[in-house]
Protein backbone atom coordinates (compact mmCIF):
# COMPACT_ATOMS: atom_id res chain seq x y z
CA UNK A 1 0.00 0.00 0.00
CA UNK A 2 2.71 2.49 1.00
CA UNK A 3 4.85 1.46 -1.98
CA UNK A 4 1.91 2.21 -4.26
CA UNK A 5 1.69 5.78 -2.95
CA UNK A 6 5.47 6.13 -3.14
CA UNK A 7 5.45 5.02 -6.78
CA UNK A 8 2.54 7.40 -7.45
CA UNK A 9 4.67 10.28 -6.13
CA UNK A 10 7.46 9.19 -8.49
CA UNK A 11 5.06 9.34 -11.43
CA UNK A 12 3.77 12.75 -10.36
CA UNK A 13 7.26 14.22 -9.92
CA UNK A 14 8.41 12.78 -13.25
CA UNK A 15 5.48 14.36 -15.10
CA UNK A 16 5.99 17.67 -13.32
CA UNK A 17 9.71 17.70 -14.13
CA UNK A 18 9.08 16.98 -17.82
CA UNK A 19 6.49 19.77 -18.05
CA UNK A 20 8.04 22.31 -15.68
CA UNK A 21 8.19 24.99 -18.40
CA UNK A 22 4.41 24.83 -18.68
CA UNK A 23 4.06 26.00 -15.06
CA UNK A 24 4.83 29.54 -16.23
CA UNK A 25 1.76 29.49 -18.52
CA UNK A 26 -0.18 27.87 -15.69
CA UNK A 27 0.53 30.88 -13.45
CA UNK A 28 -0.43 33.34 -16.19
CA UNK A 29 -3.69 31.54 -16.92
CA UNK A 30 -4.73 31.46 -13.26
CA UNK A 31 -4.13 35.21 -12.98
CA UNK A 32 -5.99 35.76 -16.26
CA UNK A 33 -8.95 33.77 -14.91
CA UNK A 34 -9.01 35.89 -11.75
CA UNK A 35 -8.90 39.09 -13.83
CA UNK A 36 -11.63 37.91 -16.21
CA UNK A 37 -14.03 36.82 -13.44
CA UNK A 38 -13.12 39.46 -10.86
CA UNK A 39 -13.69 42.28 -13.36
CA UNK A 40 -17.36 41.28 -13.57
CA UNK A 41 -17.97 41.65 -9.84
CA UNK A 42 -20.00 44.56 -8.52
CA UNK A 43 -19.41 44.79 -4.76
CA UNK A 44 -22.10 46.36 -2.56
CA UNK A 45 -22.33 47.28 1.12
CA UNK A 46 -24.53 44.26 1.77
CA UNK A 47 -23.10 40.89 2.79
CA UNK A 48 -21.48 39.45 -0.30
CA UNK A 49 -22.08 40.96 -3.73
CA UNK A 50 -24.78 40.70 -6.34
CA UNK A 51 -22.87 39.35 -9.27
CA UNK A 52 -23.77 39.00 -12.91
CA UNK A 53 -24.95 35.47 -13.89
CA UNK A 54 -22.02 35.33 -16.28
CA UNK A 55 -19.78 34.97 -13.24
CA UNK A 56 -21.73 31.89 -12.18
CA UNK A 57 -21.18 30.38 -15.60
CA UNK A 58 -17.48 31.21 -15.60
CA UNK A 59 -17.02 29.77 -12.11
CA UNK A 60 -18.91 26.59 -13.04
CA UNK A 61 -16.75 26.10 -16.14
CA UNK A 62 -13.34 27.38 -15.06
CA UNK A 63 -13.04 26.38 -11.39
CA UNK A 64 -12.61 22.66 -12.28
CA UNK A 65 -9.66 23.67 -14.48
CA UNK A 66 -7.79 24.79 -11.37
CA UNK A 67 -7.46 21.07 -10.63
CA UNK A 68 -5.12 20.71 -13.62
CA UNK A 69 -1.54 21.65 -14.33
CA UNK A 70 -0.80 22.86 -17.82
CA UNK A 71 1.21 20.12 -19.49
CA UNK A 72 2.20 18.79 -22.88
CA UNK A 73 -0.26 15.96 -22.35
CA UNK A 74 -3.22 18.25 -21.61
CA UNK A 75 -2.48 20.41 -24.64
CA UNK A 76 -2.11 17.48 -27.05
CA UNK A 77 -4.85 15.12 -25.85
CA UNK A 78 -6.98 15.69 -28.98
CA UNK A 79 -4.22 15.57 -31.60
CA UNK A 80 -2.17 12.73 -30.12
CA UNK A 81 -4.69 11.03 -27.78
CA UNK A 82 -1.98 11.63 -25.19
CA UNK A 83 -3.86 10.20 -22.18
CA UNK A 84 -4.30 6.85 -23.94
CA UNK A 85 -0.65 6.84 -24.94
CA UNK A 86 0.31 7.51 -21.32
CA UNK A 87 -1.71 4.51 -20.17
CA UNK A 88 -0.13 2.36 -22.90
CA UNK A 89 3.33 3.38 -21.69
CA UNK A 90 2.64 2.63 -18.03
CA UNK A 91 1.00 -0.69 -18.88
CA UNK A 92 4.12 -1.88 -20.73
CA UNK A 93 6.46 -1.17 -17.79
CA UNK A 94 4.23 -2.59 -16.10
CA UNK A 95 2.83 -0.18 -13.52
CA UNK A 96 -0.42 -1.13 -11.72
CA UNK A 97 -3.50 0.91 -12.57
CA UNK A 98 -3.92 1.82 -8.90
CA UNK A 99 -0.50 3.51 -8.94
CA UNK A 100 -1.38 5.53 -12.04
CA UNK A 101 -4.69 6.53 -10.47
CA UNK A 102 -3.04 7.63 -7.24
CA UNK A 103 -0.52 9.64 -9.22
CA UNK A 104 -3.44 11.39 -10.91
CA UNK A 105 -5.08 12.11 -7.54
CA UNK A 106 -1.82 13.58 -6.24
CA UNK A 107 -1.69 15.76 -9.34
CA UNK A 108 -5.28 16.89 -8.78
CA UNK A 109 -4.76 17.80 -5.12
CA UNK A 110 -1.44 19.60 -5.59
CA UNK A 111 -2.75 21.50 -8.63
CA UNK A 112 -5.85 22.51 -6.65
CA UNK A 113 -3.67 23.88 -3.85
CA UNK A 114 -1.11 25.58 -6.13
CA UNK A 115 -3.66 27.13 -8.49
CA UNK A 116 -6.01 28.04 -5.64
CA UNK A 117 -3.25 30.04 -3.94
CA UNK A 118 -2.92 32.00 -7.18
CA UNK A 119 -6.54 32.34 -8.20
CA UNK A 120 -8.53 33.09 -5.03
CA UNK A 121 -6.36 35.90 -3.55
CA UNK A 122 -6.24 37.55 -6.98
CA UNK A 123 -10.00 37.19 -7.32
CA UNK A 124 -10.67 38.73 -3.87
CA UNK A 125 -8.43 41.68 -4.67
CA UNK A 126 -9.76 42.33 -8.19
CA UNK A 127 -13.42 41.92 -7.23
CA UNK A 128 -13.16 44.47 -4.42
CA UNK A 129 -13.72 42.17 -1.44
CA UNK A 130 -10.24 42.70 -0.03
CA UNK A 131 -10.90 45.40 2.57
CA UNK A 132 -13.83 43.54 4.10
CA UNK A 133 -12.69 39.94 3.75
CA UNK A 134 -9.01 40.09 4.61
CA UNK A 135 -9.95 40.83 8.22
CA UNK A 136 -11.26 37.26 8.46
CA UNK A 137 -9.17 34.57 6.75
CA UNK A 138 -11.85 32.03 7.67
CA UNK A 139 -14.30 33.68 5.28
CA UNK A 140 -11.85 33.44 2.40
CA UNK A 141 -11.03 29.82 3.17
CA UNK A 142 -14.72 28.91 3.47
CA UNK A 143 -15.47 30.40 0.06
CA UNK A 144 -12.46 28.72 -1.58
CA UNK A 145 -13.22 25.36 0.04
CA UNK A 146 -16.87 25.54 -1.01
CA UNK A 147 -15.84 25.79 -4.64
CA UNK A 148 -13.09 23.22 -4.09
CA UNK A 149 -15.84 20.74 -3.25
CA UNK A 150 -17.45 21.52 -6.61
CA UNK A 151 -14.02 21.12 -8.27
CA UNK A 152 -13.60 17.63 -6.78
CA UNK A 153 -17.11 16.67 -7.90
CA UNK A 154 -16.48 17.63 -11.54
CA UNK A 155 -12.92 16.34 -11.68
CA UNK A 156 -14.11 12.88 -10.72
CA UNK A 157 -16.08 12.91 -13.99
CA UNK A 158 -13.09 14.28 -15.91
CA UNK A 159 -10.80 11.54 -14.57
CA UNK A 160 -13.31 8.85 -15.54
CA UNK A 161 -13.41 9.92 -19.19
CA UNK A 162 -9.75 10.92 -19.27
CA UNK A 163 -8.72 7.34 -18.44
CA UNK A 164 -11.46 5.49 -20.33
CA UNK A 165 -12.02 7.52 -23.50
CA UNK A 166 -10.23 8.63 -26.63
CA UNK A 167 -9.15 12.26 -26.93
CA UNK A 168 -12.01 13.10 -29.28
CA UNK A 169 -14.65 11.67 -26.95
CA UNK A 170 -13.04 13.41 -23.99
CA UNK A 171 -13.39 16.71 -25.87
CA UNK A 172 -17.09 16.12 -26.44
CA UNK A 173 -17.65 15.21 -22.79
CA UNK A 174 -15.83 18.37 -21.67
CA UNK A 175 -18.01 20.42 -24.04
CA UNK A 176 -21.17 18.82 -22.68
CA UNK A 177 -20.07 19.59 -19.12
CA UNK A 178 -19.55 23.24 -20.09
CA UNK A 179 -23.00 23.37 -21.73
CA UNK A 180 -24.55 21.79 -18.64
CA UNK A 181 -22.82 24.42 -16.49
CA UNK A 182 -24.30 27.14 -18.70
CA UNK A 183 -27.77 25.62 -18.34
CA UNK A 184 -27.44 25.43 -14.54
CA UNK A 185 -26.29 29.08 -14.39
CA UNK A 186 -29.26 30.10 -16.55
CA UNK A 187 -31.75 28.18 -14.39
CA UNK A 188 -30.33 29.67 -11.19
CA UNK A 189 -30.69 33.17 -12.69
CA UNK A 190 -34.19 32.33 -13.98
CA UNK A 191 -35.28 31.67 -10.40
CA UNK A 192 -33.63 34.93 -9.23
CA UNK A 193 -30.67 33.16 -7.65
CA UNK A 194 -26.94 33.55 -7.87
CA UNK A 195 -24.53 30.79 -6.85
CA UNK A 196 -21.61 33.13 -6.21
CA UNK A 197 -23.66 35.51 -4.11
CA UNK A 198 -25.03 32.61 -2.08
CA UNK A 199 -21.65 31.03 -1.40
CA UNK A 200 -20.14 34.41 -0.54
CA UNK A 201 -22.94 35.19 1.91
CA UNK A 202 -22.79 31.73 3.50
CA UNK A 203 -19.01 32.00 3.88
CA UNK A 204 -19.30 35.47 5.39
CA UNK A 205 -22.04 34.41 7.79
CA UNK A 206 -20.68 31.06 9.00
CA UNK A 207 -16.96 31.19 8.07
CA UNK A 208 -15.41 27.70 8.45
CA UNK A 209 -18.64 26.39 10.01
CA UNK A 210 -20.50 26.98 6.74
CA UNK A 211 -22.85 24.04 6.09
CA UNK A 212 -22.62 24.75 2.35
CA UNK A 213 -18.83 24.42 2.47
CA UNK A 214 -18.90 21.13 4.37
CA UNK A 215 -21.71 19.79 2.23
CA UNK A 216 -19.83 20.56 -0.99
CA UNK A 217 -16.58 19.07 0.34
CA UNK A 218 -18.32 15.85 1.37
CA UNK A 219 -20.24 15.64 -1.91
CA UNK A 220 -17.10 16.38 -3.92
CA UNK A 221 -15.00 13.86 -2.01
CA UNK A 222 -17.64 11.13 -2.39
CA UNK A 223 -17.99 11.86 -6.11
CA UNK A 224 -14.23 11.74 -6.64
CA UNK A 225 -13.91 8.47 -4.72
CA UNK A 226 -16.83 6.89 -6.60
CA UNK A 227 -15.62 7.87 -10.06
CA UNK A 228 -12.04 6.79 -9.28
CA UNK A 229 -13.34 3.41 -8.08
CA UNK A 230 -15.44 2.96 -11.23
CA UNK A 231 -12.51 4.02 -13.40
CA UNK A 232 -10.19 1.49 -11.78
CA UNK A 233 -12.71 -1.31 -12.19
CA UNK A 234 -12.90 -0.66 -15.96
CA UNK A 235 -9.35 0.47 -16.67
CA UNK A 236 -7.83 -3.01 -16.60
CA UNK A 237 -10.34 -4.15 -19.23
CA UNK A 238 -9.85 -1.20 -21.57
CA UNK A 239 -8.29 -1.99 -24.94
CA UNK A 240 -5.55 0.65 -25.34
CA UNK A 241 -4.57 -0.33 -28.89
Notes on the protein architecture:
The protein is mostly helical. It has one domain (2-235). The chain is built from twelve helices and no strands. It has helices at residues 2-18, 22-38, 53-62, 72-75, 77-80, 82-92, 97-127, 130-133, 137-164, 167-190, 195-206, 211-235. Helix 7 packs antiparallel against helix 9 (137-164). The longest helix has 31 residues, at 97-127. 33% of the residues are buried. Residues 43-50 have low confidence and may be disordered. This is ABC transporter permease. The chain crosses the membrane at residues 21-41, 53-70, 105-126, 138-161, 170-191, 211-232.
β-sheet strand percentage: under 5%
Arithmetic mean of pLDDT: 82
Tell me the series of helices and strands, N- to C-terminal: HHHHHHHHHHHH
How many structural units, i.e. domains? 1
Q: What is the subunit arrangement here?
A: single chain
Percent of residues in helices comes to: over 70%
- Which descriptor suits the 3D outline? globular
The assigned structural class equals mainly alpha
**What is the terminal-to-terminal distance?**
29 Å
The whole-angstrom Rg is: 19 Å
Number of helices: 12
The tally of strands reads 0
Main beta-sheet strand count, sense and barrel state: none
Unreliable spans are 43-50
Transmembrane segments: 21-41, 53-70, 105-126, 138-161, 170-191, 211-232
Keywords: Membrane, Transmembrane, Transmembrane helix
Protein name: ABC transporter permease
